Amino acid sequence: MKWAVLTGDIVASSSIEADALDALLQHIERVSLEAAAWTGHGPNIMTGFARRGGDGWQMAINRPDLALRLSLYIRAQLRLLDPQYATRIAAAAGDGEVPEQPMTDLNSAHGAAFTASGRLLEKLDGHTLMAHADGGAIDAAFRLADYISQNWTQAQARSLCLMLPPGAGPRRVAAETLGISRQAVDQALNGAGYPALIDALEAIE
């Protein structure tokens, strides 16, 4: 089966208390479960998750076209938790073998996509926190989205967490959920580069 694999580690994890780091990684795992429940976007979505070492993690989704959307959603969720939280994300797409039960555990998963994603994470350096192992246009999209999203504020993340999932509905619903005005949601999304990002995501998908 074709998978998108996201391999990551927490930026500046040594400055995070052990309990807080554990909670942060558990939150990323919950994001994986949320993504498996995304609807209104083609075939059923399957995801899996595993922790890697002290501050590392790996996530797989059976919809490679959703890799950038999921990566941005992870970033928004972490920013919502704490403005200082960030993770590197190395994506790859290709064949992979994932255990059917439980799907939430990737510790025995293997294949080209898993290998390529892990190797890319080892190569990420400097200010680049997101990239794609396939190179070309998809890698360019990841790197541009990385640059845009590194400056998201916590207020922007609140709106993004509601609008990034596929089939999110109109901004009016997000405003009602957050208890703020539609204009405030518009301001947050526009400041976060959401209009350009969502156009790019839809073009990829």
Description of the structure:
It is built from eight helices and five strands. The protein is an alpha+beta fold and 205 residues long. It has a five-stranded mixed sheet, with helices on both faces. Helix 2 (67-81) runs parallel beside helix 4 (136-149). It is globular. The mean pLDDT is 91.
How are the SSEs placed, and which strands pair?
Elements: E1 2-10, H1 18-36, E2 47-52, E3 56-61, H2 67-81, E4 87-95, H3 112-123, E5 130-132, H4 136-149, H5 154-163, H6 171-178, H7 182-191, H8 194-204
Parallel strand pairs: 4-5
Antiparallel strand pairs: 1-3, 1-4, 2-3
Structural class: alpha+beta
Q: Strand-and-helix sequence, N→C?
A: EHEEHEHEHHHHH
Number of strands: 5
Can you summarize the main beta sheet?
A: 5 strands, mixed
Mean pLDDT score, rounded? 91
Question: Span from first to last CA?
Answer: 18 Å
* Mass-distribution shape: globular
Please summarize what this structure is.
48% of the residues lie in helices and 16% in strands. The protein has 205 residues and is of the alpha+beta class.
Structure keywords:
5-stranded mixed β-sheet; 205 residues; globular; 5 strands; alpha+beta
